[in-house]
Amino acid sequence: MRYLMTTKATDTAAPDETLYAEMAKFVEELTAAGVLLATGGLEAGGVRVASSGDTITVTDGPFTEAKEAVAGFALVEVRSKEEAIEVTRRFRKIVGDGESVIQQVFGP
Predict the structure, then answer these.
(1) Where does the YCII-related domain start and stop, copy by copy (predicted)?
(2) What CATH number should be reported for the domain holding residue 28?
(3) Which of these, 11, 53, 57, 71, has the minimum number of CB atoms within 10 Å of its CB?
(4) How far is the C-alpha of 5 from the C-alpha of 32, rounded, in Å?
């Protein structure tokens, strides 16, 4: 089962070297185990493309308050929803206060 974990932006101070080291170890462990498929940060703005009938509208972002915007993601492959939750718990313990959302990814 694949799950997409997204993380919202926070107003906290810039990460320190300890956080970078802990995160690097975590990412290395998940990658070696074949759990982590992809990870990355996302730009704050983005572009919205909407359709209504034959009309396509393109709008430059940002669209929400910074604290509500998705700042990063991780795509993991695990055996169960519970395992995805445990991976996310470990991530939250490393990065501290904030919010992440986990969604199952369907398809090939």
Answers:
(1) 1-90
(2) 3.30.70.1060
(3) 53
(4) 19
- How many distinct structural domains can be found in the chain? 1
Q: Look at residues 7, 10, 16, 15 and name the one whose alpha carbon lies nearest to residue 40.
A: 7
pTM, to two decimals = 0.81
Q: Cβ of 18: how many Cβ atoms within 10 Å?
A: 9
Structural tokens at position 68: 């509500």
CA-to-CA distance for 59 and 1, rounded, in angstroms?
Answer: 34
What are the structure tokens assigned to 64, written together? 């929400």
Q: What is the DSSP letter of 13?
A: P
